[in-house]
Each structure stands twice: as C-alpha cells, then as structure tokens.
Amino acid sequence: MYFIKDLSFVASKISAEKQMIDKTLEREIHLASNIQMKLLNGKIPKFEGGEVLGISLPARLVGGDYYDFYLLGNGKIRVVIGDVMGKGIPAAMLMILTRGAFRSASESTDSPGKTLTAMNQALYEDLRTLKSFVTLFCADWDPQTGILTYANAGHNLPLFIDGKERTVKELPKVSGIMIGGLPNQVYKEGAIQLKNDDIIFFYTDGILEAQNKDGHQYKMERLVHTLVSNIDKGIKEMGQRVVDSVNLFTEGVPQKDDITMVLLKVINGNNQYRV
C-alpha cells in the first residue's frame, strides 16, 4: 500500500516538473520568436527613386527564412533574402548568424557577388560543423542608373514584373552554390535595367510549395496571376494580396515551410529610366 502511494507521489512530482519544463520551454520559444520578428520587421529604409517591403510568415513560432535591407554609402539599396536549412529554433539561430554576416559583409564589400563571397567565407566552418547550409539571393539597386546587380547562392530566382508591359518573368539566370556548400567560392553577378513602375519580387519556396487540404501546391501559375492582377497596386497592397491569395488557397492548413517575400519597386516621377 505504501509502495503504491510512493509511486503515486513520484508520478505526481514528475508530472509537475514536466509541466514546469514545458512552460519554461514555451516561454523560451516565444522569446526567440519575438526576437526574430523584431530583427526581421525592423525599420524599412527610405531612399530616392524606389521603395521596398518585406513580409515573413513562419510556419512555426520561429522560422528559418531571412530577409534584410542595407543602404550603402554610394546611395544604392542592398536587398538579401534567404532560407536556412531546417526548422524551429536551430534554424532561427542560424538566421540570426546569417544576418550578422550580411551586415558585416555589407560594410566592407561593394557588390552582391563580393557580399556572398565574404558571407560564405565567414559562415562556412560553422555551417559545416552544424551540417547545415543557407540559400541566399543578394541584389543592389542603383537609383541613379536604375540598374539592378545581383548574385545567387542556391536560391530561387526573383520575378521581374514589367510595369509597362504588364508581364512577369524570372530574372536572367545567374548560378552559385549555397552558402556553406563549398569553401572559397566566388559568386558571379548578373544585371538588369529597371524602369519606372517595374517591380522585383524576391521570395522563398514556401510560397510555391504552400499546400491545401488536398495536398495540392500553390505553384508559380497562381503567384504570377496574383502579381499581374495587382500590378497597379502599391507594393504594400500587392504583398498583402499575395498573402491573402495563399491563405485563401491553403484554407488554414498548417504549412511545412515559412513564407517570405520582398518587393522592390521603382518609383520615379520623371521617368528617366523608361526606354
């Protein structure tokens, strides 16, 4: 009888301790989520001739998608978007590490390719130790010339939305291995001339792979249709329309991957880039 009471007491104590641990873990996860969202949803930079917007919807409380902006001393705006391998707190920690590497590299490099090269050098050993990697796409837009220069580290190509022709297509291809894939990588660059009302839509694959209750994916066709249908909207409304379209398609089904997008729009009243 005493033995049964002892077992009951021990079981009760273990249950109470487990509840305490669960509550502590839940608080830590919420804290990590708050830190991550504050870093992602920082101040949107203001610059002449254009505007940018970033949106990130983590599949869990904390995610591995990443985007950032950096105003360069030469007047250019640098945009980066990425996806860390993995999910949850480990991916969020790597995201913060990636953010630090991007900020540091942007201080000392003058082009997207050099930025990715510096980031790979800084992160390679840590990512190799953790058996992880990061895909990144980095671009510099020059308000003076309208030229977008970009480099790719294993990420999907952004979409170029032509404001005059009302068309959507991928940026001209430029390839590069993911950050942490191989040491001593040199990342090549591509370039495209942007004009008034043109938009660059950067995104992670969580948008295309968003699934509904039947297991069907959102896919590129729906994304392009949504973008073209809202081509006359400002980027804030366009971004929200994409979010609404994905939510309508998925009907509240929990997603396996984060959904992140960045929009860069050329806004130039004198039309000096229009040819």
From TrEMBL:
InterPro entries xref list: Bact_Sigma-Reg (IPR052016), PPM-type-like_dom_sf (IPR036457), PPM-type_phosphatase-like_dom (IPR001932)
A GO molecular function held by the record: phosphatase activity
Transmembrane segments: none
PANTHER family, A to Z: STAGE II SPORULATION PROTEIN E, STAGE II SPORULATION PROTEIN E-RELATED
Domain (PPM-type phosphatase) ranges: 47-266
Hydrolase keyword on record: yes
Keywords: Hydrolase
Superkingdom of origin: Bacteria
Lineage of producing organism: Bacteria, Bacillati, Bacillota, Bacilli, Bacillales
SMART domains reported in the protein's UniProt record: PP2C_SIG
Cross-referenced Gene3D superfamilies: PPM-type phosphatase domain (3.60.40.10)
Protein name: Sigma-B regulation protein RsbU (Phosphoserine phosphatase)
